[in-house]
TrEMBL record:
Residues 10-149, 171-310 form the Galectin domain. It comes from the Eukaryota. InterPro entries: ConA-like_dom_sf, Galectin-like, Galectin_CRD. This is Galectin. One of its GO terms (molecular function) is carbohydrate binding. One of its GO terms (biological process) is proteolysis. Keywords: Lectin.
């Protein structure tokens, strides 16, 4: 994950160009909805730019008419036709705001505080190498203040991951070598099914990180009936510990691809869903991760993810 602080009027370079599956989050600590009195109008923008200074994606936020306008232009060109949508409750005075851009093939998905607001088809086929936070030159205020934080998370593995394989539901795959701290495990499903299984044993699909002894170092259980995700751990011969439960409504979209990414840290596992950090699970068993397991309750006939998912390892 890359984290940047961008002062108003500045551009920050990315360590590598954006790639398919990346999510850029512009994170504002506060929001001011009072329009700037500039005679040229109120216009604060979040921008994805190329190395040639093309505006690959320009997100213009206008407090005057409470609209968000999207556009593109080459460095030496003119703006194209605007695409727009209204605030419609997207921003709240004095509250933090998060504007996310997901790279999905030749499209950009724009969401505000987790709510998908617009899908923008790519107009300029150029690598995005920088992020820019700007406002009209004569403005003295901006909707997100004098600076904004930006984070870039890879929801898909790089072209040449250190390990890559597929895993079927019910199977376990060994890792060689074992995971090191700060590595990422990518679980990628080509589809999502939100209809709960009707078996009497309950709907429970899980992604698991195991030790060489068969301990469940991290158990991530997806429960479609309750719209929750349950995190837990247990030794190979012991019982489950205290559950850590988070609501998952809105995390997944029917029939859409999804990525669940786990970052291993010294004392914890960070779990991302489609690039958004959803939970940090403090390690309970201090052993190396040597295998992954994809499973569901024995009497289930369907699960939330595809029958076969892709797994990749990246990082140090």
């Amino acid at each position: 994950m890359t984290t940047l602080t961008i002062p108003i009027g500045d551009t920050r370079s990315l360590p590598s160009p954006l790639r398919d599956g990346d999510i850029v989050s512009f994170i504002a600590s506060t929001t001011s909805l009072k329009p700037d009195p500039s005679p040229n109008g109120d216009n604060t923008s979040l921008n994805l730019v190329s190395g040639d200074d093309d505006y690959v994606l320009h997100i213009s936020i206008r407090r005057g008419d409470q609209s968000v306008r999207l556009n593109s232009r080459h460095a030496d060109g003119v703006w194209g036709a605007e695409e727009s949508f209204k605030f419609d409750g997207s921003f709240t005075e004095g509250r933090p705001s998060v504007v996310t851009v997901t790279v999905r093939g030749s499209k950009y998905l724009i969401a505000i505080d987790g709510r998908l607001r617009h899908t923008y088809a790519q107009r300029i086929n150029a690598p995005v190498t920088g992020l820019r936070y700007a406002r009209n030159g004569d403005m003295t205020t901006a909707i997100f203040g004098n600076s904004i934080k930006a984070q870039v998370v890879h929801t898909l593995p790089p072209p040449n991951p250190s390990q890559s394989f597929t895993i079927n539901i019910g199977d376990t795959r060994a890792l060689s070598p074992a995971l090191a701290n700060d590595q990422f495990v990518y679980f990628i499903s080509s589809t999502t099914s939100l209809t709960p299984d009707t078996s009497t044993g309950g709907d429970n699909t899980s992604l698991n990180l195991l030790s060489i002894d068969g301990d469940y170092l991290l158990h991530v259980s997806f429960r479609r009936v309750s719209n929750t995700i349950v995190f837990n751990a247990r030794t190979a011969t012991g019982g489950w510990g205290a559950e850590e439960v988070i609501p998952s409504k809105g995390f997944f979209q029917e029939s859409q691809p999804v990525s669940v990414v786990v970052q291993t840290k010294t004392q914890a596992f960070d779990v991302y869903i489609d690039g958004v950090l959803r939970h940090t699970f403090k390690k309970r068993i201090n052993k190396a991760v040597t295998a992954v397991r994809y499973q569901r309750n024995n009497n289930m006939s369907t699960q939330i993810f595809a029958n076969t998912i892709n797994v990749a390892i990246d990082g140090q």
